[in-house]
Specification:
Elements: E1 20-24, H1 40-45, H2 47-53, E2 57-60, H3 88-100, E3 104-109, H4 119-126, E4 139-140, E5 163-167, E6 173-178, H5 193-209, E7 213-216, H6 253-265, E8 272-275, H7 282-286, E9 296-297, H8 300-303, H9 309-326, E10 331-333, H10 342-348, H11 370-386, E11 390-394, H12 415-419, H13 441-444, H14 470-474, H15 480-493, E12 503-504, E13 511-516, E14 520-525, E15 530-531, E16 536-540, E17 548-549, E18 553-558
Parallel strand pairs: 1-2, 1-11, 2-3, 3-7, 7-8, 8-9, 10-11
Antiparallel strand pairs: 4-6, 5-6, 12-13, 13-14, 14-18, 15-17, 16-18
Helix pairs in contact: 5-6, 10-11, 11-15
Bound molecules: alpha-D-glucopyranose.
The site of alpha-D-glucopyranose (GLC) has 9 residues, from loops.
């Protein structure tokens, strides 16, 4: 029996139930003025590339004025554009032009913390303990007779204590403020109604400018447990904590999202928000996706899975079961600007929860077989794009870029490097500026030539970068880029893909096979060479060996019942 969907057609349901969204890490995507850093005009120049790739939406990482201690995730002004990246007029032009091309626009909102250069934090430093200015952030007196012991044992995600002691305006050592991330990123106090109202204004500001949605940074972090009780064990917390933490996934966050949903719904055109909520199991994710809360939440259970049929299948089943309870679509993701690129992860077999996590930059490079990683990443892409719901792709994923593991230490910029006491190299290796051309000039085409000349790219690019470039992959019909373009175009024309039902087909323990409406079959082979099922091949992630599927290969097929 063929599988049939009983959902309204794709044109009739909200776009975010099916969308493939492309994440742009603005600093590293495309540089229009030759200063070695990406910018808004650079993105605009590349819209035709994104159109040809076939994505439905783009999400741009924070583009607001920022001292760039955490590359924009330390926001100094939520209602403007970083001068290095352009102007509000440039942003408006980009939004309008993307819309004309049928591409939706999602911006990143960072509500858990601001930059220490934000006007409010500067005011708080000058104001007295207990003042309304201090109450917008989380200031506390220290413990001990001299107040020199931090208020509790919380650690920052990037390393070290999550508390920093300030010097009061009178020059004396004073109160402490909370920063779950870098010292320069003080946490807002979301119990304060002024903070809530401020962010509602920020949402409206960008909605009025025309954006289709928001990616909510650290969406599981804004509310802290009452009384700020100690964390259960010492050490830097993982974003995806194995045990309950007093600063992650507190019930109070949901009230915020209910109020945000009302704002989103008051605008026409299915405006949406996607949560960066590192929570597990899937039933906890589903809580962010209740009908009166958010549209999407990244599936980090999927991202942190090993390249292993059994684990992936369990996590796919768990996610689909949990989110179908609340009527939400899945949001699959393998890569973003915070994790080691999937090519490396899949090649090295990095596993979460063993100290060898996706956040680990120190996997053994000697063991890395890049061809295996690329084959798996390509197969994983066809798996992800055939699953029910939407998907998020990170820039360079369509080129199967590997992690850059040998950035010289003196060029590392991620605050993790310093805050971990120089033990964790941080996330720069997945943020290296994109190679557009084969030749090394102008940062492999990252920086467009202008009369001022070209400055060095903000992170160095490796010598071999050009072989992964857009230019070289456009010349090769078997390239990863060519595969992504075909896959996204097929996804558009296959009405059974995107949101809707799926049914597992049992082909053995090492194969994941499932059917989608329209007699569409996706098969992924995690084991040794296996026989190809009966049917017509639509697309494969690598060469097929006669009637066989080689290992680490995925196939899309039309079958007959
Ligand atoms: C999120 C961002 C990450 C940033 C952190 C603090 O996890 O994705 O890049 O460092 O929040 O804002």
């Amino acid at each position: 029996m063929s599988l049939v969907s009983n959902l309204p057609s794709r044109e009739k349901r909200a776009w975010w139930r099916d969308a493939v969204t492309y994440q742009i890490y603005i600093r590293s995507f495309s540089d229009s003025n030759g200063d070695g850093k990406g910018d808004v005009e650079g993105i605009r120049a590349r819209l035709p590339y994104l159109k040809a790739l076939g994505v439905d939406a783009i999400w741009i990482t924070p583009w607001y004025p920022s001292p760039q201690n955490d590359h924009g995730y330390d926001v100094a002004d939520y209602m403007d554009i970083e001068p290095d990246y352009g102007t509000l007029d440039d942003a408006k032009r980009l939004i309008d032009e993307a819309h004309l091309m049928g591409i939706r626009m999602i911006v990143d909102i960072v509500p858990n913390h601001s930059s220490d250069q934000h006007k409010w934090f500067q005011e708080a430093l000058l104001a007295a303990p207990g003042s309304k200015e201090r109450d917008r952030y989380i200031f506390r007196d220290g413990k001990g007779p001299n107040g020199d012991i931090p208020p509790n044992n919380w650690n920052a995600v990037f390393g070290g204590s999550a508390w920093h002691r300030i010097t009061e305006p009178d020059g004396k050592p004073g109160q402490w403020y909370l920063h779950l991330f870098a010292v320069e990123q003080p946490d807002f106090n979301w119990e304060n109604s002024e903070v809530r109202q401020y962010f509602e204004r920020v949402l409206r500001f960008w909605l009025d400018l025309g954006v289709d949605g928001f990616r909510i940074d650290v969406a599981h972090g804004m509310i802290k447990a009452e009384g700020l009780p100690d964390q259960p064990a010492p050490g830097s917390p993982e974003m995806l904590a194995a045990v309950s933490m007093p600063f992650w996934d507190q019930d109070g966050v949901h009230e915020i999202y209910r109020s945000w949903r009302k704002i989103l719904d008051s605008y026409p055109g299915d405006r949406m928000a996607v949560a960066e909520a590192w929570v597990s199991p899937a039933s906890r994710i589903a809580r962010y996706l209740r009908p009166d809360e958010l549209a999407n939440s990244f599936n980090f259970d999927f991202l942190t899975s090993k390249w292993e049929a059994k684990t992936l299948r369990e996590r796919i089943d768990g996610s689909i079961a949990a989110i179908s309870e609340v009527g939400a679509p899945a949001s699959w993701v393998f890569n973003n600007h915070d994790v080691v690129r999937s090519v490396d992860r899949f090649a090295l077999g990095l596993t979460p929860g063993t100290g060898d996590t996706t956040l680990d930059r120190h996997g053994d490079s000697a063991k890395l077989d890049i061809r295996v990683g690329v084959a798996r990443a390509r197969a994983g892409a066809l798996l992800m794009l055939a699953l029910p719901g939407g998907a998020y792709i990170y820039q360079g994923e369509e080129l199967t870029l590997p992690e850059v593991r040998d950035i010289p230490e003196d060029r590392l910029t991620d605050p993790r490097w310093k805050m971990s006491g120089y033990t964790d190299k941080g996330r720069d290796g997945c943020r290296v500026p994109i190679p557009w051309t084969m030749k090394e000039e102008s940062g492999f085409g990252f920086s467009h030539q202008n009369t001022m000349g070209i400055e060095e790219t903000w992170l160095p690019q490796p010598k071999w970068w050009g072989s992964y470039s857009v230019e070289s992959q456009e010349k090769d019909q078997d390239s990863s880029l060519a595969m992504y373009r075909k896959a996204l175009s097929i996804r558009r024309s296959e009405s059974g893909l995107g949101d809707g039902p799926m049914k597992w087909v049992e082909l053995g323990d090492d194969l994941l096979a499932f059917e989608r409406p329209g007699d569409f079959l996706c098969v992924v082979n995690f084991g040794k060479e296996a026989p190809l099922p009966q049917g017509d091949v639509i697309l494969s992630s690598g060469p097929l060996d006669g009637g066989k599927i080689p290992s680490d290969t995925a196939v899309w097929m039309r079958i007959s019942h």
